[in-house]
Write a structure and sequence with these properties.
Strand order of the largest sheet: 1-2
Number of domains: 1
Pfam family, one: Rrf2
Distance between the termini: 27 Å
GO molecular function, one term: DNA-binding transcription factor activity
Organism: Sphingopyxis fribergensis
Helix content: 40-55%
CATH architecture: Orthogonal Bundle
Protein name: BadM/Rrf2 family transcriptional regulator
Largest sheet: 2 strands, antiparallel
InterPro entries: Tscrpt_reg_Rrf2 (IPR000944), WH-like_DNA-bd_sf (IPR036388), WH_DNA-bd_sf (IPR036390)
Order of helices and strands: HHHEEHHH
Structural class: mainly alpha
Radius of gyration: 19 Å
CATH class: Mainly Alpha
CATH superfamily: Winged helix-like DNA-binding domain superfamily/Winged helix DNA-binding domain
Shape: elongated
Number of strands: 2
Strand content: 5-15%
Length: 154
Amino acid sequence: MKRDSRLSGVLHVLLHMAEHRAPMTSDQLAKAMQTHPVVIRRILGGLRDAGFVRSEKGHGGGWTIARDLADITMRDVYDAIGRPGLMAMANRTEAPGCLVEQAVNAALDTSFQEAEALLLARFGEVTLAQLAADFHARMAARSLSPTAQEHIHG
């Protein structure tokens, strides 16, 4: 089963934007994310609708963060991108006639719901400011300039 990496990608884009501190074009962000500018515009359009980013057209325009990073949680971003599925596992059938499978489904459903609630609660505790601080700590540990805009890969 293919993993859904949209949340990771959107968080990555937002942190690049926050580090740049000036409007970034879809082309610039696409280059940083190794994707097509249309993908970036589609993602950021949804975040604009949620009030997390804004865009300006024309010379010197581009995408910027619209709110303080401390006011945006991973849960906010998750909700803004349409709440993609968190669990790759699922019941074999949703309405089984077999009583054994009904018992299995009931146990799995409860576990899935509890795991999802914990994960969403954790997403609500982590702000973009915390992610940015972690990034800066990692840069400092590598003795890199805090204004570096390129990808930092291990």
